[in-house]
């Protein structure tokens, strides 16, 4: 590769790196979208506020753990204890951005710092989004780690509203796509993202990437905003060629083959 081309690639990498760094350091990504701070529809009166993983109070951490357990334990089944541990670690990362949805019951939201303490106590959380600005296949993306709503606010348009806001935050911070992971058993969430919001199964998703994970329990979905992101995350240019029947058999039975070889070596 000639020097000029190499320099161009390095410059591009630096620009993307700076983009992610800048987006990640913004204290309140909701501030350009004040009209989205309130949600008054379908008998709900809610407000939104930003949060950061490394600044969560212990009661909020406990709340997140409880809601995750309520909403997700059934989908993960016996994998839940491991997943809960992973999610607990992810939850407090300095890279974790949050949108908290709170009930608007007592006083106006986000008024003064003196009222804030009361509002944290009085205005209960009804759900949250955990997202991050990161790189996926060298593409700058907003990755939605979690969107979790309490059952009493579900099915009232709030999820769609939050995902619209997520799209605005992604565009404002010049991200090229939104990426998220969804469990295949979570049929409603799959329909919600794909039919309602127009997400597509990404080329990096196990089912598309022809990885030897025949029983992957999740899909990676994406919504892309430019042609490069579309090419990399949707069109699947780097996917391996489909595995032949023999290769699949070999992968499936490789443990058996290794065991036989081991026995042969022993004797
Ligand atoms: C998935 C989730 C974020 C969606 O948010 P939501 O606020 O419930 O969804 P919305 O009300 O915006 O629904 C959008 C569409 O789905 C439909 N819908 C909502 N709830 C539904 C339900 N229980 N069954 C079938 N359709 C439903 C709505 O009717 C709406 O379609 P419409 O506008 O054409 O009527 C939310 O339900 C949730 O937190 N679920 C539990 C946790 C979870 O599964 N998170 C996703 C992990 S990847």
Classified in CATH, the superfamily of the domain at 3-175 is Gcn5-related N-acetyltransferase (GNAT)
Helicity level, as a percent range? 40-55%
What's the main sheet like? 8 strands, mixed
Number of helices: 9
N-to-C order of helices and strands: HEEHHEHEEHEHEEHHH
* CATH topology-level name of the domain at 3-175: Aminopeptidase
pLDDT averaged over residues: 87
Q: What is the CATH level 1 assignment of the domain at 3-175?
A: Alpha Beta
What would you say this structure looks like, in words?
It holds the Pfam family Acetyltransf_1. One of its GO terms (molecular function) is histone H4 acetyltransferase activity. This is Acyl-CoA N-acyltransferase. InterPro entries: GNAT_dom, NAA40. It is found in: Cytoplasm; Nucleus. The protein is an alpha+beta fold. The protein has a domain of 173 residues: Gcn5-related N-acetyltransferase (GNAT) (Aminopeptidase, 3-Layer(aba) Sandwich). Helix content is 45%, strand content 22%. The chain has an eight-stranded mixed β-sheet, with helices on both faces. The chain is globular, with a radius of gyration of 22 Å. The relative contact order is 0.11. About 5% of the residues have low confidence. The protein binds coenzyme A. The site of coenzyme A has 17 residues, from strand 5, helix 5 and helix 6.
